[in-house]
Amino acid sequence: MSERKDNSSKQVLLSVLGVAILVVAVVGVSFAAFTFVGTGTKENTVSTGAITMTYSENSDGITLTDAMPMTDEAGKALVDTKNEAGEYTTKNTFRFSVGATVTGTTSIAYEIAAIKKEIAENALGNNDVKLYLASVAGETETAVKEPTHYTPIADATEVGTPAGAMILTSGTITSTQTTNYVLKMWLDKDYQIVNGEPSKSFTVTLNVYGKAA
User: Fold this and answer.
1) What does the longest C-alpha to C-alpha distance in the chain come to?
2) Which is more confidently placed, 44 or 179?
3) Which residues, including other chains, have CB under 8 Å from residue 119's CB and lie 6 or more apart?
4) What is the C-alpha R_g of the chain?
5) Phi-psi label, residue 139: left if phi above 0, alpha if psi -120 to 50, beta otherwise
6) 12-58, pLDDT tens digit by residue?
7) Close Cβ partners of 55 (under 8 Å, ≥ 6 residues apart)
8) Considering the entire predicted model, what is its pTM?
9) pLDDT of 37
10) What is the 3-state secondary structure (H, E, C) of 63-84?
């Protein structure tokens, strides 16, 4: 009788351990599938089984150097240029796509954010530049974030965007989809260029953050 109880106890213990391991495994998979950070690089694709981010650019963001001030209308109308290899070469624009494969009742919260690269010398200020985000379908661009000065958030978000970043758009993905975007950045029309002043620059990289909603 004692031996039977001992065997039963062992079976219960093994079952509990098995459940615990399964729970840990599920949590681990969920974290891997729904929490990500992607920085744009040329043809950079990051897949977790649920989310894919693709960037088709020559660099990981936009850098303004020796730029001339322009109106919001002119900035929004900036057009991409390509080299002979078919690669985008325009310094003021950055193209990328965000896709997700969603099954069942799963939903994914996401945030697309620009992160300013700190420059030690001759850096433009946050209010010297304008950023504009649009979704792209064929040749049609639809405004997602109207022209806005670089506006950093004070605290990190629950989705994962760090303090100091600028959130360009956010939302929840509930079905399988891929959205194409273009980010444009230019020098504010009111910026005063001073003769003899060293050239100033401003750089942002683009990150996409997400987690299970």
Assistant:
1) 97
2) 179
3) 201, 202, 203
4) 23
5) alpha
6) 443 433 433 333 333 333 322 223 333 443 344 434 435 555 665 55
7) 38, 40, 41, 42, 43, 44, 94, 95, 96, 97, 206
8) 0.74
9) 36
10) EEECCCEECHHHHHCCCCCECC
